[in-house]
Design brief:
Elements: H1 2-26, H2 31-43, H3 45-56, H4 67-78, H5 93-106, E1 111-112, E2 115-119, H6 122-134, E3 139-144, H7 151-165, E4 169-175, H8 184-192, E5 196-200, H9 207-210, E6 221-224, E7 228-232, E8 249-250, E9 253-257, H10 260-276, E10 296-302, H11 310-321, E11 325-329, E12 333-334, H12 337-348, E13 352-358, H13 364-380, E14 383-387, E15 391-392, E16 396-399, E17 403-407, E18 411-412, H14 413-418, E19 421-427, H15 429-443, E20 446-449, H16 451-455, H17 459-469
Parallel strand pairs: 3-4, 4-5, 8-15, 11-13, 12-18, 13-14
Antiparallel strand pairs: 1-10, 2-9, 3-6, 6-7, 7-9, 10-19, 11-16, 14-20, 16-17, 17-19
Helix pairs in contact: 1-2, 2-3, 4-10, 5-11, 6-7, 11-12, 12-13, 13-17
């Protein structure tokens, strides 16, 4: 009897293994990734299957957030937008294809005539954010990957409680794993005051839910009364003001006024529908907005709920449009093959490509992986700067004094493929020049590495970095 039972277990396991490998092949993924997973499943059978269930499944086709629910919220807000009637004087012919791409791959409307303020440090960012929240009259929508249970986060908590008691509708989304250290007391105090608090993809002891642990909501979005919005790379944590063992964290955040706020609002309400299963679509959330400066903004969301890797495609198209320069801020640099090739092509074509990363990030493993990518781009002519004045956490790109890309998306496969991300694509000379000046100012606190010095690293160090690179899709 035991012999028969053992045979049945083996047959069941083989059936499951063959089924998973068949699914992998039918998904038509990158062959290297598919072969890697097949090898893991074959040589680490039980552990490999466990890792595949947690990290290996492709939810882009399965749609964690169904397109039907997204369209229910989006339809009457974007259906009237006519791409053909877009004022091309706001962008110029060189950038029209980029705007069209982002409209076609994720229905990103081109929002015109906005006021854009750029913040480059924690003090000014939180001052501006708290000031706007204090003046909220109707609603506050707030979403961050990380809410730390620390001084600045508790100041925000107290402010949200105060506004909720005043009758302002407050909705808050936090990522379950990103904000894992939030105490029950912190969350309970918000809920008791009337704040609607929801966790994004909380862990559940069910395969169907726990298998989505690899997909995190990395967005940072705030909307006040449907009139003012914020987005960028900053989280709610003391390290942006007081620093930590890595020093003070340098990040980029933007404040938007004008029609682009509607784009941020749509994004938040789609996420809210996912976490709360309630459709929010009142006119008070989309008021008539004032016109400001002559510019255009597209709010781009990307993640396993989208048909395409929207932000990745947008960045690739923006890079290909560059004729003068591309300046990149990123805390991590583990690019996909497409991004890596595009950066090298731009540099080899004579475009001034500059990359700024921290000397040391909050992940030693990510630092090692990042290091493995630098030699090739240095050989192509990219200038690489390592920031020493704290930790550079900014996710900002500026191109040719006109295109600016600011948001939550890092230069790694996790952000491009697995995470829910949000970036603003801004077509505006004023904003671009401001970001370029910030990059140049930041360069004063950097060391520039050269190809000669970088190539002479110890072979043992290169080996460690190449080993870390193997795990870059999971970091």
């Amino acid at each position: 009897m035991r012999h028969i039972f053992t045979i049945l277990i083996i047959l069941l396991y083989l059936y499951t293994l063959i089924s998973i490998i068949s699914v992998l092949i039918l998904e038509n993924r990158n062959p290297v990734k598919s072969i890697s997973w097949v090898l893991v499943l074959l040589f680490l059978p039980v552990l490999g299957m466990f890792f595949y269930l947690l990290f290996g499944q492709d939810y882009r086709k399965k749609k964690i957030i169904s397109r039907k629910s997204i369209r229910r919220i989006n339809y009457r807000r974007v259906a009237s937008f006519d791409m053909e009637a877009l004022d091309t004087t706001l962008i110029g012919k060189n950038h029209l294809n980029l705007v069209k791409l982002l409209y076609n791959n994720c229905e990103a409307v081109g929002y015109a005539y906005n006021k854009i303020d750029v913040y480059s440090d924690g003090e000014s960012t939180f001052d501006a954010l708290f000031d706007v929240i204090r003046n909220a009259k109707d609603h506050i929508h707030i979403q961050f990957f990380i809410f730390d249970d620390d001084r600045i986060s508790n100041q925000l908590r107290e402010l949200l409680i105060k506004k909720a008691k005043e009758g302002v509708r407050v909705r808050m989304i936090y990522d379950y794993w990103g904000s894992f250290n939030l105490s029950k007391k912190y969350l309970k105090s918000l809920q008791e005051a009337g704040v609607y608090v929801r966790a994004f993809l909380p862990f559940r002891w069910r395969i169907s839910r726990s298998s989505k642990i690899n997909y995190r909501n990395h967005r940072k979005v705030v909307i006040i009364d449907g009139k003012i919005g914020f987005t960028g790379g900053l989280n709610v944590a003391d390290r942006y003001i007081y620093g930590n063992k890595l020093g003070k964290w340098r990040d980029t955040f933007i404040k938007l006024e004008g029609s682009a706020v509607h784009g941020l609002q749509l994004l938040f309400l789609v996420d809210w529908y996912f976490v709360d299963r309630k459709l929010i679509d009142g006119n008070e959330y989309f008021p008539e907005l004032q016109k400001f400066d002559k510019n255009l903004v597209q709010i781009i969301s990307s993640g396993p709920d989208s048909d395409w890797p929207n932000i990745l495609q947008g960045i690739l198209s923006a890079f290909m449009s560059a004729t003068k320069y591309i300046y990149i801020h990123s805390p991590y640099f583990m690019p996909t093959d497409e991004i890596d090739a595009c950066i090298q092509i731009a540099a080899l074509s004579g475009v001034d490509v500059r990359l700024m990363i921290p000397v040391k990030s909050d992940s030693r493993f990510s630092d090692a992986s990042t290091a493995s990518y630098l030699e090739k781009i240095l050989a192509a002519g990219v200038r690489v700067f390592r920031y020493k004045n704290g930790l550079l956490h900014s996710k900002a790109i500026v191109i040719d004094d006109f295109i600016s890309i600011v948001g939550s998306c890092n230069f790694d496969e996790r952000s491009f493929v697995y995470n829910f991300e949000a970036n603003a694509f801004i077509y505006d000379s004023k904003t671009a020049i401001q970001l370029k000046d910030l990059f140049i100012k930041d360069a004063e606190y950097c060391e520039e590495i050269t190809l000669e010095n970088w190539s002479n690293r110890k072979r043992s160090q290169k080996l460690k970095e190449s080993f870390a690179r193997l795990f870059s899709p999971l970091m």
